[in-house]
Write a structure and sequence with these properties.
By secondary structure, the chain is mostly helical. 64% of the residues lie in helices and 0% in strands. It has helices at residues 7-16, 20-42, 45-61, 72-93, 104-107, 125-141, 144-153, 160-167, 171-189.
Length: 202
C-alpha cells in the first residue's frame, strides 16, 4: 500500500510533516465513522464522542511514527478498536461507574446525531426508534470480537482483508465472526426486521 494509492495515507504523511490542515481533513472525513463504531461498541453517545476525540488525539500524537504499511482507515480503526476494548474492560472492572450506563434520554431518541442513517417516513418513526434500541441491545449482547467485526463490516471503507487486520486475525476467522454475529442478530431481531439490513454480503 503506497501513499499514491491511498490519498488518506498521503494526508497523514503531510500531518507527519506538521500540516494541521491535512489533519483537519482526516478528522472531517472520519470523525462520524469512528463515532459510529464507538457508539455501537459502547452504546453511549457521550462516551462515543469522547472516544472518537481520543482516537484522533492518538492519531496526532503518533504522526511522527506513522508508516504507510496499509490503508489509513485500517490503521485508524485499529486505534479505535484498541480504545473501545480498553473502555469495555475498564467498565468490567468498575461496573458501578456512573458513566457506564447509557443515558436514558439518549436511548429514547433516534441515532441520527450519532450515526448516519436514512430518516424513516413519519408513520415509521416510532418503529424505527424501537428497532434502533433492539439492534443496540442485540449488538451489545454479542461477544466483543463478533460485535466489532459486524460494526466494521458496516463501514464502506473496509474490506474483509482490512477488517481482519483491524481484528488481528485471519480473513477466514473474520468471515466466521461476521457470519456467526449476523446469524445471532437475525434470530434476536427476527420479530422486528422486515429487511436484510444486517445480513448483506460484503
Amino acid at each position: 500500500m503506497s501513499a499514491e494509492l491511498d490519498p488518506d495515507a498521503a494526508l497523514m504523511l503531510r500531518v507527519k510533516q506538521g500540516d494541521t490542515s491535512a489533519f483537519a481533513q482526516l478528522v472531517d472525513k472520519y470523525k462520524q465513522p469512528v463515532m459510529n463504531v464507538a457508539y455501537r461498541m459502547l452504546h453511549d453517545a457521550t462516551e462515543a464522542e469522547d472516544l472518537a476525540q481520543n482516537v484522533f488525539v492518538q492519531v496526532y500524537k503518533s504522526a511522527d511514527r506513522y508508516r504507510v504499511s496499509s490503508k489509513f482507515s485500517t490503521w485508524l480503526f485499529t486505534i479505535a478498536r484498541n480504545l473501545c476494548l480498553n473502555e469495555i474492560r475498564r467498565r468490567s472492572r468498575h461496573p458501578a461507574s456512573s458513566l457506564d450506563a447509557p443515558h436514558p434520554e439518549q436511548d429514547d431518541q433516534p441515532l441520527h446525531q450519532v450515526e448516519d442513517m436514512k430518516t424513516s417516513a413519519p408513520p415509521e418513526h416510532l418503529l424505527h426508534g424501537e428497532l434502533e434500541r433492539k439492534i443496540g441491545e442485540a449488538l451489545a449482547a454479542l461477544p466483543e470480537n463478533q460485535r466489532l467485526a459486524i460494526v466494521l463490516c458496516r463501514q464502506d471503507e473496509l474490506s474483509y482483508e482490512e477488517i481482519a487486520k483491524v481484528l488481528d486475525c485471519s480473513v477466514a476467522a473474520t468471515k466466521s465472526l461476521i457470519h456467526r454475529g449476523r446469524e445471532t442478530l437475525k434470530q434476536r431481531l427476527k420479530p422486528y426486521l422486515r429487511t436484510g439490513a444486517w445480513g448483506g454480503a460484503k
